Amino acid sequence: MRKYIVTLIVLVVFSCNSTKKKESQAIDKKLEKPNIVVFYVDDLGYGDLSSYGAVGVETPNVDKLVQGGIKYTDAHSSAATCTPSRYSLLTGNYAFRNKAAILPGDAPLIINPSIPTLPKMLKNAGYSTAVVGKWHLGLGDGFVDWNKDVKPGPLEIGFDYSFLLPATGDRTPTVYLENHSVVGLNDKDPLLVNYKKAYEGEPTGIMNPEMLRQKADRQHSQAITNGISRIGYQKGGKNAMWIDEEFPDVFTGKAIEYIRENKEKPFFLFFSFHDIHVPRLPNDRFLGKSTMGPRGDAIVQMDWMTGAIMKELERLEIDKNTLVIFTSDNGPILDDGYEDFAEEKIGIHKPSGPYRGAKYSAYEAGTRVPMIVYWPSKVQKGESSALVSQIDLYASLASLLDIKLEDDEAVDSHNIMGSLMNANVKGREELLEESFTLSIREGKYKYIKPITAKNLPKWLSNKNVETGLLEEVQLYDLSKDVSERDNIANENKELVERLDRKIDSIVNIN
Questions:
Q1: 3 state SS for 327-381
Q2: Mind listing the pLDDT tens digit of every residue in the chain (510 residues)?
Q3: Alpha carbons 397 and 39: distance in angstroms, whole number
Q4: Residues 6+ apart with CB under 8 A from 426
Q5: E strand segments, 46-143
Q6: Are 390 and 500 in contact (CB under 8 A)?
């Protein structure tokens, strides 16, 4: 009997130890797969954060990430406009490979569901995946009936959950899309969207300017929602229409809800802000919080949203096992179609920092954006001058998770995980920038490929931006000339020819 009891005790102890060991292994496995949160701000310039020299606006929540992480001074979006940058981040491929350009609100999904994507890769590695916020990568496979399931979309390219602005704030349809369905749509009031002609009887910014809260240029003077005219026409769906001032609470709430539901397993959250894109209509509680009017107040709003999500990670005690990447989809823009006095109220603030250009530009400010990597106790914090691109997140995260990529997967993405973990590790040797033309950075040199005016969109001439899109060859030495004022192409013809060939070799990669 005593022998039986001793044996039983040994078995129980062994069973407990085995259970604890399995639990420990499960915890270790979880730690090997950190949660990943990408904060992707819209139109935030290099100089638009306090920690990057902003004047007239404070961003304490984002600055807290800088204090505990890595601040990058030479980080780039892959393109100077939004749809191409998003395409590249999620596919690891340059946007020109798929002719990705700024899309209308009724465009089909630009990412083919059959190709590899970042969310697919993470999902296959055991992650739950979600996108919340601005989409602007197209939906459906042609004509979209907004009153039925809208697909393919984010769920077909690897996301488990999505809550979206279908395009962006200045385009119809002005409704939320959750997974495949328009939120709050009434069957008796179907939603119709058209980008070619207006619906009879529906007000537009051109015909009904007295209804507008902000004046807009002709491009943005079509359908009216919430007192703001947009690009594109729509009819019906009145119960589903958004209120712009509610964006911060709606999107932040959805992100927090997703985090709470997935806190027990690794998750990937692509939090894609609408701010600080036009139209800029911050919630009342942020009005007057900067000296720059709606644009500055929208930056404050963006900072609050970032802080609210970070505080939730801390409250759930999962912040230390969460890799946070904060950055912007392209450079800044002041007047982008609406009269919100962004140019008049700018003061001495420099949205592009010391760099020339802005959104849409081939100059540095078109793609050189703020970027912060935050992972408590994991990253070697500090300020990094590494040359990095958002297109590299795909291969870098694959490396972190020990995932081998296929030969045709993320062909333009480089593994720079070392640079994302240590402020003292170098980044890329060269980097391609898209902005209607192609530019290349190699060491201290920047070469901008010439482009003819006939290849540029007509609306670009209405933007108050130094585009750098010229028919002449341009070469700059950024070690001496960060503002790209001294074109040294004529004195360095061999270098120009070599860099031009290098661009062609990247474009023509098999």
A1: EECCCCCCCCCECCCCCCCCCCCCCCCCCCCCCCCCCHHHCECCEEEECCCCCEC
A2: 444 344 433 333 334 444 444 433 433 444 479 999 999 999 999 999 999 999 999 999 999 999 999 999 999 999 999 999 999 999 999 999 999 999 999 999 999 999 999 999 999 999 999 999 999 999 999 889 999 999 999 999 999 999 999 999 999 999 999 999 999 999 999 999 999 999 999 999 999 999 999 999 999 999 999 999 999 999 999 999 999 999 999 999 999 999 999 999 999 999 999 999 999 999 999 999 999 999 999 999 999 999 999 999 999 999 999 999 999 999 999 999 999 999 999 999 999 999 999 999 999 999 999 999 999 989 999 999 999 999 999 999 999 999 999 999 999 999 999 999 999 999 999 999 999 999 999 999 999 999 998 889 888 988 999 999 999 999 999 999 999 999 999 999 999 999 999 999 999 986
A3: 15
A4: 386, 387, 419
A5: 70-72, 75-76, 128-134
A6: no
| Token digits of residue 350 | 């420099």
